[in-house]
Amino acid sequence: MTGIIRVLYVDDEPDLLEIGKLFLEQSGGFRVTTSSSAREALEAPELASYDAIVSDYLMPLIDGIAFLKEVRKR
User: Fewer Cβ atoms within 10 Å of its own Cβ: the N or the C terminal residue of the chain?
Assistant: First the structure.
């Protein structure tokens, strides 16, 4: 596989977002964008441009499963 894998990482805990982003980007081959809420991620115009999405399960308002189901619909 060649190229950079674009990942959207969604979690309501800022420390986990930072650690996850650092880990993936330092391991090479990943460019990680973070979002602190599912709602924020759904409103982003670039949502469809990611190769992969990593989401926390327990988040306020929209949980990770509902978020990923909405992404799949779009």
Answer: N
The enclosing domain of 16 has a CATH number of 3.40.50.2300
**CA–CA separation, 26 vs 38, rounded Å?**
25
Separation between Cα atoms, residue 22 and residue 73, nearest integer Å: 30
Looking at residue 2, what is its pLDDT? 67
Contact criterion met (CB below 8 Å) for 59 and 70:
no
Contact 4, 31 (CB under 8 A): yes
| pTM of the predicted protein model | 0.91
Distance CA 74, CA 18 (A): 27
Low-confidence stretches of the chain (pLDDT < 70) are: 1-2
